Predict the structure.
Amino acid sequence: MNTEQPILIAGLGSIGRRHLQNLLALGYDNLLLYRTGKSTLPENPFEHIPTEYDLAAALAKKPLATIIANPTALHLPVAIEAAKAGSHLLLEKPISHSLDGIAELQRIVTQNHLKVMMGFQYRFHPALQQVKTWLDQAKIGQIVTAEAHYGEYLPGWHPWEDYRKSYSAQAALGGGVLLTLCHPFDMLRWLVGEITAVSAVTGIIGGLEVDSEDTALTLLQFDSGAFGSVHLNYVERPTARWVHLVGQCGTIHWDDISGKAILYEAETEETTVFNPPAHYERNVMFLHEMGEFLNLIFDEPVKSLSTFADGIRIQHIIEAIKLAAAERTWQNV
């Protein structure tokens, strides 16, 4: 792995710091930071890493790749300039808070022959990868329904900051559960297939002091004919994250808190439980994700890549959900 060119990290909040630490753990130590100085984290343990507060100055150092880890609504301005400078991109999900500017980024990426990966790290969860294997083996037959649930208490996410000032709470910064907690839409597309129509109800009903939706219930139709639902909220305690799939020949349930995936095959009445490796912890997903990104930019084989096209599709799905909720209709995607 040639580390002559730096990798630029734009944003040094919690996810930016995680990516930085994982790059170091993987042996890539030629790093550069682009910061605005607005991080709410109490200290900066990375003061020894070169830091620029001007984006043009950072890009003048010709980073091989740029990790977009700033607030959602600020992703595209940085990503577009980085792409113009010929930098590959790891985009934290979602791409942006709207569709505006995505076509321009897509044009520049194509023009400059750049590689782009989305930060949907759940594709690297070992139990979800096992679920994907079971589905590819048709263990439960054709999928009938697919449900996903992601509920987590927003004030508990970052104890060091006032949650009301976080980007997740503010519509202007791209907050709200549909954007911030969009992982289930990527999971279900990856596992079940393309989402073709949506309907939803959303609201600010959780008793939190936020100006973006804190709760959303979404109905989905898949290209395969399966039905689905996604429930997102900022208020649930304890945290709950799971996927439940019903097929014509059985069921599969994945629970992120326990880490387990459970397969039930109706014909044999057999239950198979998959447990992650001993001592597995959450950062392993992010570590494998970063390893995959390094493979991508150094032309090594990749396996669970979430592509730019996947990110764009998720953005269209979220826009359709917002419209469906506003108009109380079904929307094709």
The first helix runs from residue 14 to 25. The chain has nine helices and 15 strands.
